[in-house]
From TrEMBL:
InterPro entries: Phytyl_CoA_dOase-like. The keyword Iron applies. Transmembrane segments: none annotated. GO terms for molecular function: 2-oxoglutarate-dependent dioxygenase activity; iron ion binding. It comes from the Bacteria. This is Phytanoyl-CoA dioxygenase. It holds the Pfam family PhyH. Keywords: Iron, Metal-binding.
Length: 299
């Protein structure tokens, strides 16, 4: 079994990108402080206590999952916007998009007697319609509690993002994302992984924040999980990350209902909050290669 590479918190985004390209994922140790971990735990505790266990095998019968974290946990805002994570995400996803967006937010608490989750690739949420040459996702699992093999640390199959799509993992090819609180597992959307089995008496708590290309449908509908009246109270940078911005020149505009002459038509989402839209990357439609790829201008 090949283990998961661990890197220190001062690692460069370029190094993180290189390891993810080679192995499918990497653990960054001790990226956030114990005080922040404590505050995140306190914010999530009421929701987890009131939440219900899953009702199907994939989600787990002894696992609780809480979504809409951008609306429920202010401390998780900093995780979503963490500079090192976003820099590595940008390097990983930018070859396939003009920007990326927050795809999925969830707190996952795995309890005693939970079994191992089926190994899977996250890109499967879009079905078989995307070419494997396009990387769809940059994912994070933040350890809020300690992650051990015994308490449900994430199963992870290094290098499986390079496998033929029909190959399955053997037991000796599975590694475990064992890490201390405050550390984070970063991985792409093509590598095999899954929640681990918990054979201890303590819950294993992680925060999952995943990013994807801004032209793909998000797994979690951010506009319902965090509607405009709540999003208005968030930092503009976070709103844009959630998708309250245009993807390219036109993707994601809105029009308001009303009588003739009232409201807006074909407006960028930033106008909802009195902001100017950010300038999209500009492509030269006259420069198209044999695969019909547009090339960014040098201006």
């Amino acid at each position: 079994m090949t283990g998961i590479t661990h890197l220190p918190a001062d690692t460069s985004p370029e190094k993180i990108k290189d390891v993810i390209e080679d192995q499918g994922g990497v653990i960054i140790d001790n990226l956030i402080s114990p005080d922040k971990i404590k505050r995140i735990s306190e914010e999530l505790a009421p929701y987890l206590e009131a939440g219900e266990f899953g009702r199907e095998d994939f989600g787990g019968f002894q696992t609780k999952r809480i979504g809409a974290l951008m609306a429920k946990s202010p401390e998780c805002h900093d995780l979503a916007l963490h500079p090192l994570v976003n820099a590595a995400c940008d390097l990983t996803l930018r070859p396939y998009c003009d920007s990326y967006q927050l795809h999925f937010t969830q707190a996952v608490s795995i309890s005693k007697d939970e079994g191992a989750q089926t190994l899977h690739r996250d890109r499967g949420v879009w079905g078989p319609y995307l070419n494997r040459s396009i990387e769809t996702q940059f994912s994070t699992i933040w350890a809020i509690s300690e992650f051990t093999k015994e308490n449900g640390a994430t199963q992870f199959v290094p290098g499986s993002h390079k496998w033929d799509k029909n190959r399955t993992a053997t037991e000796d090819e599975i590694a475990y994302a064992e890490m201390s609180p405050g550390s984070v597992l970063l991985y792409n959307g093509t590598v095999f992984h899954g929640g681990g089995a918990n054979t201890t008496d303590k819950n294993r708590l992680g925060v999952l924040l995943h990013y994807t290309l801004n032209w793909l449908r998000q797994e979690e509908n951010q506009y319902l999980s965090c509607p405009p009246d709540i999003a208005a109270k968030l930092p503009s940078e976070l709103r844009r990350l959630m998708g309250y911005s245009l993807g390219g020149p036109t993707l994601g505009f809105y029009s308001t209902p009303g009588a003739p002459g009232e409201g807006r038509d074909l407006a960028p989402p930033e106008y909802l909050f009195g902001e100017k839209p950010r300038k999209p990357r500009i492509f030269d439609t006259k420069r198209v290669d044999a695969n019909f790829n547009l090339h960014e201008t040098t201006e």
